[in-house]
Amino acid sequence: MSAHLDLEESEPDVATDGVWLTCIECGEQFAPFAEIRYTCDHCDGLLEVRYADLPTWEDFGGASTPESGPYGVWRYSAALPFEEGVSLPEGGTPLHYVPRLEEETGVNTLRVKHEGMNPTGSFKDRGMTVGVRVAREVGVDRLACASTGNTSAALAAYGARAGMETLVLLPAGKVAAGKVAQASLHGARILEVDGNFDSCLDIVQDLAARGEAYLLNSLNPFRLEGQKTIGLEIMERFHADEGRYPDRIVLPVGNAGNTAALYKCFRELRKVGAIDDDEVPKLTGVQAENSAPMVEAIEEGNDEVRRWENVETRATAIRIGNPVNAPKALPGIRETGGTAVAVSDEEITDAQRSLAEEGVGVEPASAASIAGLRKLRETGEIEADEDVVCLTTGHLLKDPDAAYEAGGEPEPVPNDTEAVLDHLGE
Ligand code: F0G
């Protein structure tokens, strides 16, 4: 089945340099930088960034190499609201071959887009390079986010780079050690909330509404513009290597920001004719089974996602019960002919080990993509002739405790070569 994307669009009457914001629910338009808003003034719907001129492949300036000018996110500035951002720099991540996993899962091609190779070790950097640039444009001095960890690490680093104050709200005791360490050393003020991620997001939205800080969660539509470049990189690289586009992209889902960003990427490519309907990859979301409201909505065919109050998983990055980008992401999964699937913590850890055996070190949430691929191969929903890209969103070092648990035990030996040889011979 080929995708059928909704490409309807209205003409702008409020554009600034060809950029404006549109409410995805009621279509109301807003000038992008004149006032700070995160959702629609009229209906509170999610906002999306729109452009008068969308680019096609030629507009990105030829071969993508570190030597050929801007590399990574800003190579795609023709598809972004600015020419450059607050950059460390970010993007340009590897699209690994994983031959053993490819053979085991029995798909035609399997590649792994490793977003853990970004400056702070997760894809969040792509959103922050744009988001913090917008913060400068609208003239704020304090940035804030709620986070399961990675967003806070990225915001802290990009805020520091821009010389801005940052405030991060984290669910107490539920954030992996590497991420808190990053936020702390980059100088963010860290507030540990006695609640889960969803309650942190409620509070930070209240703070933003009262003008206390500029919100840089993925509710902020500019974040998703940066994250859209994951899709551009996958499509361009895969096509350069294989001569075709991938059939499917499998990704872990928390707030569903990446799912929404990839869907937007494909719609924009479709709109300018850079790809056809039958070249749109099927968006396939994976959640942990005790944090799976999106999977529930897809399986039950619901238009809205029910908020899960009690969520739990070892993949703390995606321990989220209220995916705020669901209204953007659900149509993306449906229109591309994709699906969503839940996996257990054990399946996630197994997948983390399998990736590590190929030399690809990821945090648990990232491995959910491989665990989801395995499950959908078992059920036959992903077919043997498919070209699949799995997205791994964060680096192994983000969650050292999970890595220790999944890995082998160190073996104590005496301080003596003969004794070491004896030990090895045992
Ligand atoms: N993978 C990792 C490693 C993440 O950190 C996140 C989200 C996701 C996947 C889910 O991405 O929200 O776009 O569906 N982490 C956020 C944070 C919530 O605060 O770091 P999504």
Automatic annotation (TrEMBL):
GO terms for biological process: threonine biosynthetic process. Residues 86-394 form the Tryptophan synthase beta chain-like PALP domain. SUPFAM superfamilies: Tryptophan synthase beta subunit-like PLP-dependent enzymes. Its cofactor is pyridoxal 5'-phosphate. GO terms for molecular function: threonine synthase activity. It is an enzyme of class 4 (lyase). The modification N6-(pyridoxal phosphate)lysine is found at K124. InterPro entries: Ser/Thr_Dehydratase, Ser/Thr_deHydtase_PyrdxlP-BS, Thr_synthase-like, TrpB-like_PALP, TrpB-like_PALP_sf. Its EC number is 4.2.3.1. PANTHER family: L-THREONINE DEHYDRATASE CATABOLIC TDCB, THREONINE DEHYDRATASE, MITOCHONDRIAL-RELATED. This is Threonine synthase. It comes from Halosimplex aquaticum.
